[in-house]
Design goal:
By secondary structure, the protein is mainly α. It has 8 helices and 2 strands. The chain has one domain.
Length: about 180
């Protein structure tokens, strides 16, 4: 099935066609599992949120978003990256509360964001830094979110944000440097 087919199914589902959701579900699940897999491979080994639980929660939240009127496949998975980020950050905050503030869960940032020593970074700190970046440049923040939480390539990010790949590359380099600086504070 092509991305265009997914777009057609999303639009039919948005218009109330329940059969479209039935056709769409295995396709969505497959891509959501890939997003979860890409993200969770950067998690610490003892992370307590299983990829299946992450996918299920993201799927349920996406189904609730039907009224959002997904424009196409990229729009759908762009929103799913935001939802995955929110689920992971909420989970990390809950674990932090359980531990009464000590030793919040850490996430290793991929090669593009990880510092030279390869130290893992706190997911909550990354979320806070992304919020700060969004205040300065919402598009750069969104590009990081799509790349890191959504598993989008540079080309997919460019398409989702309606930008050139050169611009996304430039944003990625700039945002990566800014985030490294913020996370080292």
């Amino acid at each position: 099935m092509t991305p265009g087919d997914i777009t057609v199914l999303l639009r039919r589902w948005g218009a109330g066609d329940r059969a479209a959701l039935d056709e769409l579900t295995p396709l969505i699940y497959r891509e959501l599992r890939e997003q979860a897999r890409l993200f969770l491979r950067h998690e610490r080994a003892e992370h307590t949120l299983a990829s299946g639980a992450l996918v299920n929660e993201a799927f349920l939240r996406m189904v609730e978003q039907r009224q959002a009127g997904f424009h196409d496949r990229d729009h759908f998975f762009s929103i799913s990256s935001q939802i995955i980020r929110r689920i992971l950050v909420d989970h990390a905050r809950a674990k932090r509360r359980e531990k009464r503030g000590a030793g919040a869960g850490h996430v290793e940032i991929d090669e593009a964001i990880r510092d030279p020593a390869g130290r893992s970074r706190d997911l909550v700190a990354l979320d806070d830094a992304l919020k700060d970046l969004a205040k300065l440049d919402p598009v750069q923040s969104r590009a990081v979110e799509l790349r890191f939480f959504g598993g989008f390539s540079i080309e997919e990010t460019a398409q989702a944000l309606s930008l050139s790949t050169a611009t996304v590359n430039r944003y990625w380099v700039t945002a990566r440097a800014w985030l490294l600086r913020e996370l080292q504070k």
